[in-house]
Design goal:
- The protein is of the alpha/beta class and 495 residues long.
- It has 3 domains: 224 residues, FAD/NAD(P)-binding domain, CATH 3.50.50.60; 128 residues, FAD/NAD(P)-binding domain, CATH 3.50.50; 80 residues, Enolase-like, domain 1.
- The chain contains 10 helices and 26 strands.
- The strands form 6 sheets. Strands 2, 3, 4, 5, 6, 7 and 19 form a 7-stranded mixed beta sheet that branches.
- Strand 3, helix 3 and strand 4 form a beta-alpha-beta unit.
- The longest helix has 16 residues.
- The termini are far apart.
- The structure holds flavin-adenine dinucleotide.
- Flavin-adenine dinucleotide (FAD) binds next to helix 2, helix 7 and strand 22.
């Protein structure tokens, strides 16, 4: 009988949803796609004619709100900015969030936020949205100045779609004209019965989680990171920066299996090992053990061995936070709330954006959910623009993922990769990681996806153009390229 941990890991792998929102989509070539997808929906989306309930002139003094955003994360912050840009925030917009903070750039939590304490870690207000895309830093004061009502630490608990109201945990009733659901994901957890809630066991989804991890790292000696996705990769890179004995454990054969090819993963694994990270691949966890003080003391594996640990970080993916919004219409295959190309749900006046939205990925003609910050930002802007203006162009997203690690002062080298497009078909790898490497995905003679490590700004700029235009490419020519620069030039000339 497999253990609960093993079942959990197996179910995560078999639903192909491990690692941070990237998903495996087996194709005829058995390659992996990065996005949760399903076939196009057969449902019709009723159009929403704007017939807002009036907010009182002394804004927000009664229960009526014109616009309500549920969630205070990445997508919510960019949505608020778009309302302001259209002059539709002041006295009209209300944001209800579970967190005690105004929206911030969540990816920082496993990057600069986890720098060793003497290496200038990022802290709020430094990374409030929208600084991640070069925009204004929207501090709590910014929301006040813009006349946006912020309801902090009071999650929405239920919705009544007939009455157009939401009720918060504390019992606040808000009547909305239009509602945008931006609740993101919650981190998948190990069950309590196998030690998933022991002191010293951490999950990272919000700033409170990251603070709690930092307080463990301050006392830690041995850290075990569970999960070989990029949360795991980022946390392991941070932990060795703290000079801690760090082991990363995962059931797959190599890091970031959903995106990296085995040979690409090997380059990263070697670099991690040179920087002190130990690997335990193909390993299943039975349970987490507690010491006499009740704190986690080890990670017991299915093979009977135990890894000593005083701090365990679990990075095994997330689930869309939809519990209060089932009546809005969920997608049964990719999860999340189903929307059309303007982020409208089936219920007029209700929209969903960011990680929680299951939207038509036009380029690849499938429904997808993308758990990445670039999509959170763009979906927010697209949705609010369509809601407030006559703009009716449907969302046409080009999948983009990135990670950056070992960026702290004194690190042997900074690692920064970007990927654009679809990871389907055969691959050609060019470069030896010293200092660069590129992987090209080619399907039916066309370039479908590109990953580049340590490119120049100009080189990174070329990637979206290649992935969007999908030029026919001469694979053998690419294979003969003697450098990443030459390979990119071959790709550019095929446009
Ligand atoms: C640690 C970490 C590192 C990441 N690194 C990267 C990266 O390197 N690159 C990348 O592309 N992406 C990265 N991501 C993913 C990226 O951060 C998300 O895709 C993005 O934050 C999604 O934005 P969102 O607004 O949909 O959800 P979130 O930013 O998660 O915001 C959701 C908000 O809704 C709130 N909420 C939930 N339920 C309710 C409710 N019922 N009522 C009120 N509020 C509610 C939550 O508390 C939260 O504030 C990372 C994510 C994490 C957690």
């Amino acid at each position: 009988m497999p253990s609960p941990a093993r079942r959990l890991m197996a179910s995560i792998s078999s639903t192909l949803s491990l690692k941070h929102g990237l998903s495996l989509r087996p194709t005829h070539q058995q390659s992996a796609s990065l996005i949760r997808t399903s076939s196009a929906p057969g449902i019709g989306f009723r159009s929403f004619r704007r017939s807002f309930v009036a907010a009182s002139s002394s804004a927000f003094s009664n229960e009526n709100r014109e616009f309500v955003i549920v969630g205070g994360g990445n997508a919510a912050g960019y949505a608020a900015r778009t309302f302001v840009e259209h002059g539709m925030a002041d006295g009209k917009l209300c944001m209800v969030t579970k967190e005690p903070h105004a929206p911030y750039e969540r990816p920082a939590l496993t990057k600069a936020y986890l720098f060793p304490l003497d290496k200038k870690p990022a802290r709020l207000p430094g990374f409030h949205t929208c600084v991640g895309s070069g925009g204004e830093r929207q501090t709590p004061d910014w929301y006040k100045e813009k006349g946006i009502e912020m309801i902090y630490q009071d999650p929405v608990a239920s919705i009544d779609i007939e009455k157009q109201t939401v009720t918060t945990n504390s019992g606040k009733l808000l009547k909305y004209g239009a509602l945008i659901v931006a609740t993101g994901c919650t981190a998948s957890r190990f069950p309590e019965k196998i030690g998933g809630n022991l002191p010293g066991v951490h999950y990272i989804r919000d700033l409170g989680d990251a603070d709690s991890l930092i307080s463990s790292l301050e006392k830690a000696k041995k850290v075990v990171v569970v999960g070989g996705g990029y949360i795991g990769m980022e946390v392991a890179a941070a932990a060795v920066g703290w000079k801690l004995d760090t082991t990363i454990v995962f059931p797959e054969n190599h890091l970031l299996q959903r995106l990296f090819t085995p040979s690409l993963a090997q380059r990263y694994e070697q670099f991690y090992q040179e920087n002190g990270v130990k690997f335990l691949k193909g390993a299943s966890i039975k349970n987490l053990e507690a010491g006499s003080d009740g704190r986690v003391s080890g990670v017991k594996l299915e093979d009977g061995s135990t890894l000593e640990a005083d701090t365990v970080v679990i990075g095994i993916g997330g689930k869309p936070a939809v519990s209060s919004f089932e009546s809005v219409g969920l997608n049964s295959s990719v999860g999340g709330i189903e929307v059309d190309g303007l982020f409208r749900t089936k219920v007029p006046g209700i929209f969903a954006i960011g990680d929680v939205a299951a939207f038509p990925l036009k380029m690849y003609n499938r429904i997808a959910r993308v758990e990445h910050v670039d999509h959170a930002r763009r979906s927010a802007q697209h949705c609010v623009k369509s809601l407030l203006t006559a703009h009716t162009d449907t969302y046409d997203y080009l999948p983009y993922f990135y990670s950056r690690v070992f960026e702290y002062e004194g690190s042997s080298r900074k690692i920064w990769w970007q990927f654009f497009g679809d990871n389907v078909g055969e691959t050609v790898e060019v470069g030896n990681f010293d200092p660069k490497i590129a992987t090209f995905w080619i399907d039916s003679g066309k370039l479908k996806g590109v990953l580049l490590e340590s490119g120049s700004p100009e080189e990174f700029q070329l990637l979206p153009e290649l992935a969007r235009r999908q030029p026919a490419i001469d694979k053998s020519k690419l294979e003969k390229a003697s450098s990443v620069e030459e390979a990119l030039e071959i790709a550019r000339s095929s446009l």
